[in-house]
Amino acid sequence: MRDASTDVLTRRRMLVALGCGLLPLPLQAFASPAAAKLTSRRAQLCELISNADEARRVGSLYRARFPLEAAAEELTRRIWIDLAIEDTDRGALASALERRAREQFGSGETVLVRGWVMARTEARLCALYE
């Protein structure tokens, strides 16, 4: 008769199996739904960038200037809050970004990065595009 305890995958056995490549589980299998949603939103936001090289340069300077916002998760959250949108359609996101940039220019919520005066949300978007 076989002991049921031998069929149990203990944490140690699982770690050994993962380390040996015996359990090819993607890391996303362990991610929380909230983390997966943030990752998806970040990808959707990054699709709005049309000039990747310039976005990287501006983004790097923005992250250095505002280190509390430097993490991708933090930037994604702040941008999504700024856009005040639930729709994830690319067109809707682009429209929301344009609307928010106009609002921020009107209210003076801008930053100077690399000689450019930018709406804060635009600068954050560049910073998100590492």
Structure commentary:
There is one protein chain. Helices cover 58% and strands 6% of the residues. The protein has one domain (29-128). Strands 1-2 form a two-stranded antiparallel sheet. The model is unreliable at 1-9 and 14-29 (pLDDT under 50). The chain contains 6 helices and 2 strands, in the order αααααββα. It has helices at 11-19, 33-46, 52-65, 72-83, 90-107, 120-128; strands at residues 110-113, 116-119. The relative contact order is 0.15. The protein is mainly alpha-helical and 130 residues long.
What characteristic shape results from the CA principal axes? Answer: globular
Number-wise, the strands total 2
CA radius of gyration: 21 Å
Helix count from the secondary structure assignment: 6
β content, as a range? 5-15%
Structural class label: mainly alpha
Query: Strand order across the biggest sheet?
Result: 1-2
Tell me the distance between the termini: 57 Å
Order of helices and strands: HHHHHEEH
Describe the main β-sheet briefly.
2 strands, antiparallel
How many discrete structural domains?
Answer: 1
> Could you tell me the mean pLDDT?
83
Please give the share of residues in helix. 55-70%
Could you name the ranges where pLDDT drops below 50 across 5 or more consecutive residues? 1-9, 14-29
